[in-house]
Amino acid sequence: MKEIEGVEEFIDETIEELKGETGDGVLDEDALREPVSTLEPRKPVVVGPQTPALEAVAVMREQGMGCVLVVRSNRLKGIFTERDVLNHLVGLGPEVAKTPVRKLMTGNPETLRPSDSIAYALNKMSLGGYRHIPLVDNSDAPVGVISVKDIVNYLVKLFPKSVMNLPTLPRGNYAREREGA
Length: 181
Known about the structure:
The chain is of the alpha+beta class. It contains seven helices and six strands, in the order ααβαββαβαββαα. 38% of the residues lie in helices and 15% in strands.
């Protein structure tokens, strides 16, 4: 029970630091109103609708991306993610080599403009359960991709002392029950 009390105290202290009372940053509406372009989104990795799904997976691995954007005539038509690989591609058998990505992608995905706020991106990601959101320009041409990881990295930059000074093991420095009398 003492260990649980220590964890709760640690969490309370961390929350206070993140609020800016004793930390190095301030998590307020202004920080979340910043445009998603502040997150330094990655350039989109694109494939055509007829690209074989296995080729799209190879591109994702090569580029270190969790998704590729499916584009036709320079307009976003869909997104193919790691989740699509797990939910649709695995178990297809021999025909997987020939399956075009258009049959497995999420068509007409939610998108953002680079000027949309980080708070708006978080809202879309939370409500939709998305890990990636394409950024498009006024003609629906992809200009970037943001991920949950980008937002986490942004928060780490806001609170470097609070995050980087955490113990290696989360329970490693909590007060332990005294032994003996």
